[in-house]
Amino acid sequence: MALQRMFSGDPARSSMLYLGIGVLSLVKAIAVRKDPDRFRRELLDAGLFIGAGLVLRQYSQLKEEKRAEMQERLPSWLSTDSGSGSGTSTRSTGLRGRAMQRFSSEPEPEPTFVEKAQRAIQGRQ
User: What is 63-122 written as a DSSP string?
Assistant: First the structure.
């Protein structure tokens, strides 16, 4: 597996997968302990998978720390909405949410019956 592919996606989930495979290999090594060659191979596999899982776990923690540190350094107008009063959903918070709304190819969701009724009532008042 390429290292770039290993570190992409969710490294926390991948680390759990590698640790699980490593534990299974370790159990398998114990099961075949009477065959020295196979025992050695399974033990080596277990060590490699557990090592990769631990590295991915450390990488995941470091990635989260850096993300939190970067978000702390952002100005408040970039990280959250400044209370525009438009009553938009929580998806529109921050610059990222605004960009997603502006450039998203998804159509706006159709208003529900309740929302249509509320608009009609508010329009008459």
Answer: HHHHHHHHHHHS-HHHHS-----S---GGG-HHHHHHHHHH--SPPPPPPHHHHHHHHHH
Q: Which amino acid is at 88?
A: T
Taking a C-beta distance cutoff of 8 angstroms, is the pair 48, 19 a contact? no
Backbone angles phi, psi at 104, to 5 degrees: -70, 140
User: What average pLDDT does this structure show over 52-77?
Assistant: 86
H or E element in which residue 52 lies:
helix 36-73
- pLDDT tens-digit readout, 96-115: 777 777 777 666 678 888 88
Dist. CA 78–CA 81, nearest whole Å: 8
- Cα angle 7, 56, 69 (rounded to 5 degrees) comes to 80
